Amino acid sequence: MSSNNNTSITLAILQIQNAFRYPTLILGFILLIGGVLGNILNIIVFIKVRNYKHNACSLYMFVRTFIDLYILLAGLTTRILTTGFQIDFTLMNRIWCKTRLGLSNINSESTYTLICLQAIDAFMCSSPSTGVRQKSNIRIARYLAIGTLCFWCIHEIPYFIFQDLVIVGGTHMCIGTNTIFAQYRTYFTALCINTIIPIIVVSIFGYLTVRHMKTIAVTRTLSSLTRQTISMALFQIFAVLIFNGPNAAWLIYSAVTTNVVKDTYRRAVEQLIASFAATYSYGPYASSFYCYCLSKRFRSQLIVSLKELVCGIHTNQVFPNNQRSGTRT
Question: InterPro entries this protein is in (predicted)?
């Protein structure tokens, strides 16, 4: 009787593994291909138009584009190979085992910090107060972008020390060798820094920005560049909520049920859901271009930039004075 029970559980696990494997793989390829293409187009547009030199929000978007591209190429690609094809380079190379997680965390924490700064800058740009709008400054934005990268590089130094390739029960495993730091990563880095805090910050400042934009007097005083970057930032906030909301719910559930006794079937199901949620969480890194394309002005800039790049057609773009000065009106 017990043998039949075990056989049925094993068959059920195999069935659900097959059911989860292909959707996870398909989602991963969609995010990878669409995200890499989108970020490359973002780079082309930002370099051609050069708004990032005059506007703080555009600078955050420009820096994020390179970070997101790295995360997709180095992080999502290896995840697809691991979950879809059982090729895990962290189990084959000790250096990659020690560096992959740290580098991924540096980039993911940096991009979420820049998204928060982007949301705060959109709030300041849309403020009815001229004094608040003037606080959106390209010089300060440069310092904040550089400071963000430096801070998270220092923060991740322990990962390069404690993460290691070890043998547990005759099996190679790439794990954290320090229990305290492993718990810090699970409960604070993954749950708070990369998930809950960005959701709270972008939700609050996104809501306040929308309230400002409903004021006709404020909207009329903003330059066309400022209105464009504010709308692009709001679309990106929406994407963060869509992709990070389910992942936040799953991480909270995992933290709450850590000490719960689970049977084999439940553990297998949760492992598959965790794998799908981890792949789904790459959405913010792949969706920025498609969020920006909701802006009519960005679509026009994309077409002009591609014509210049592919056909060699140079279009003289005339910008009004208030657009050149970013948020000053």
Answer: GPCR_Rhodpsn_7TM
What is the distance between the alpha carbons of residues 197 and 188, in angstroms, rounded to a whole number?
10
State both tokens at 278. Answer: 């981890």
**Under 8 Å CB-to-CB from 307, ≥6 apart: which residues?**
313, 315
Q: Which fold has domain 19-305?
A: Rhopdopsin 7-helix transmembrane proteins (1.20.1070)
pLDDT digits (tens, 9 = 90+) for 32-86: 999 999 999 999 999 988 877 888 988 999 999 999 999 999 999 999 998 888 8
pTM over 0.90: no
Contact 192, 126 (CB under 8 A): no
The values of phi and psi at residue 135, to 5°, are -70, -15
- Cβ contacts of 215 within 8 Å, gap of 6 or more: 128
CA-based nearest residue to 20, from 252, 274, 281 = 274
